[in-house]
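Practice problem: GH10 domain-containing protein
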Amino acid sequence: MGDGKVLPFNGRYFASASGRKERWNGVQQDITGQLHRKLAYEVIAEVRIFGNSTGAEVRSTLWVESPNGREHYISIGKVHASDSEWLRLQGKFLLNENLSSGLPPMLENVSFGVNVIENSNLSQGLRYWSPLGSCTLSIAKGSPRLLPPSIGSIGHYEQLSGLYIVASNRMETWMGPSQNITNKLVLHLTYQIAAWVRVGPGANGPQIVNLAIDVDNQWINGGHVQVVDEKWQEITGSFRIEKQPSKVIVYLQGPSAGVDLMIAGFHMFPVDRKARFSRLKEKTDKVRKRDVVLKFPEVNGEDASNTFVRIRQLKNSFPFGSCISRSNIENEEFVDFFVKNFNWAVFGNEMKWYHTEPERGRYNYKDADEMVDFCKKHGIDTRGHCIFWEVEDAVQQWVKSLEKDDLMTAVQRRLEGLLLRFKGKFKHYDVNNEMLHGSFYRDRLGEDIHAYMFREAHKLDPSAILFVNDYNVEDGCDAKASPEMFINQVLDLLNRGAPIQGIGLQGHISNPVGEIVTAALDKLAILGLPIWFTELDVDAANEHVRAEDLEVMLREAYAHPSVEGIVLWGFWELSMFRDNAHLVNAEGHINEAGKRYLALKQEWLSHSEGHANSFGEFEFRGYHGLYSLEVTTPRRNHVNPLWLIRRITFGIVYKLIASESWS
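Answer key — C-alpha cells:
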C-alpha cells in the first residue's frame, strides 16, 4: 500500500479501509452468536493510518442489537494512530444483557408438507433445474416410484414418476444439479429434505453424497449419506434459516470428480410440529402409561363404593438426567435446579482418561470422587463417561507416544484402575466413546481391541450396563454415522463376545425433525437393546425456537418404546458444550427452553380421583413413578404419601388391605 510505504505488521497481508466518507467508516466483522454473556473479552489489534502525518484517533467499537430491536454501542478501546508505524489498540468489554432470547417466530399461513422444489417429478423436463458448475444434466428413467421412507408417514401419497436427473461430466466434487429457491423459505421454520440418490459406475470406494443449501454463499448441511454401490439410497436431513437471505440455492454434491450423480423424488417442505406433537401425545399414552386397578375392602361392613380416592403423582421414575461438572456443584442455584428436576447425572470430563491421568502415572480422581459423593447424597444415579475415547484428538499425548505393548499395558491399567475404584457406583459405562468417528486404539492394537474393552469392563464390574455411544446417528447429517453403520458395528462387537447392553445416542442435534429421529430409533430398535439419549442438547439463538427443538427431541424419545433414558448435556449458561443450548441463564433465570422442559415434566405426571365402583375397585391409567394416595371412607381419611408404581402390568389388581386407621 502507498507504493510500498505501508507494509504488514507481520505476515503477508493486512486489512485496509479506503475511500472513507465518514469518521465511523472502517473495517468490521459480524460476530453474532460467538459471544457469551458474563464473560470478559479482550480485543487486540495493530493499527495505523495513511495520508495524515499528524496522526488520528482510531477506536474499536462493538455494535449490539438487542432482541427487542434496541441498538447501542460499546466503546472497547482507542489509540492515537500514526502514519509512520503500527501501534497496538487494546481494550476489554463485557456483555450483560441477554442477546439470545428473541421473540416467538410469527409463522402464519404456512403450507406445511408442501414441496418447495419445483418440478420434482421432472414432468416438465429440466425446467427450474440448473447444473452447478460445468457438469451436464440429463433425464433418465428407472428410479424408485415410492417416496423416500422418512416422508412417507406425514401425508404425502403422490407416486413418483420414475424419472431422475443425471449429472455427468463432473470435473469437481461440488458439481451437480441445483435449483434456486430464493424467496420460498420462511425464517425460523424447520424444513425437512429427502430424496433418492445414486452414483454411477467408476467410483473408487464408498462415495459421500451431500444435499447442500447455499444461503448467500454460506454452506448449510441438508443431509449426508454414504453410497457404497450403484443402488438407490435415501438421503434425508433438515435445516433452518435465521436471517432473510438475498439468494438461496439447493444443490447435490459429493462424489469424486468423474463419477455421475443421480437424484430422484427430491422433496423439501416445512414441518408441522404441532400436528406431530398431537400424534406423539397419543403414542406416549400407549407406550408409557399402564392401567391400574385398586381394590378396596369393605370397612366395618360398609360398601367400598362409598370410598373416595384421590391420586397424585409426585415423581415420574423415567430417567431424566443432565451433565454436571465439578465446578457446578459449588453453585447453590445450579444444585437446587438439578436435584429438583433430574434423577440421573453424567460427568462432563471428570471421568475421562485425559482428566484422571493427564500425565503417565499422575492420577486425579479427586473431582470424580467428590461428584460421586454428591450424587449419592442427593439420590442421583450416575453414568460413567467414558472409559476410553476412540477419537485421536481426545487421546492425551503420553498415550499417543506409547508403543504397542506399552499401550496395551496402559489400557489394562486404565480398565482396572477406573472400574475397581468405582465398582458398583456407576450404573452405566460408555466403554469406548465415538467408535464410528475414530480408530486410535483399533489402528494400534487390532480389530479385537474394542470387544476386549467391553469384555474386561464386564469382568471388572459385572453390575454396570455397558454402552456404545456416538453422535449424529439420529439426524441424517453425517455420512459416517448412519443407523445402519451403528447397527453393523454393534453386531460385529457382539459376534466378538462384547457384552454390549445399551445403545447411546449423544443427541447433539440442530433443527430436529421428529420423523427422521424416530426412523433412526426404529432401525436401532431391531437390536433389542435399550436406547438412551446420553448427551442431548439443541442449539438455537432464539430461545423460543430452542424450546420447540427441545420439545421435539423429548417427545420423540419419550414416546418411543425402546428409549429408556434421556440425559441432557447440561442446562446452565456458561456450562454448556454448545452455544445457545442452555435452559437456565447465568443468573438462574429459567428461559423459554427451560420452561418447556418443566412443562413437559408436569405433563408426564398422572392424577386421578373419584369413587370406587360397586365392586370396590378404582381404575386409572398412569405413568411409572411415585404417587400420593388419599382415601376417604365415610368415617375418616387415610393418606399414604409414598406409593411407588415401578413396573405396572396391564390389568393387574392392587389390593389395599383394611386396617384400623381406615375405619
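Discussion: Residues 367 and 449 are 29 Å apart (CA to CA). Students who identified this feature from the C-alpha cells alone can consider the problem solved.
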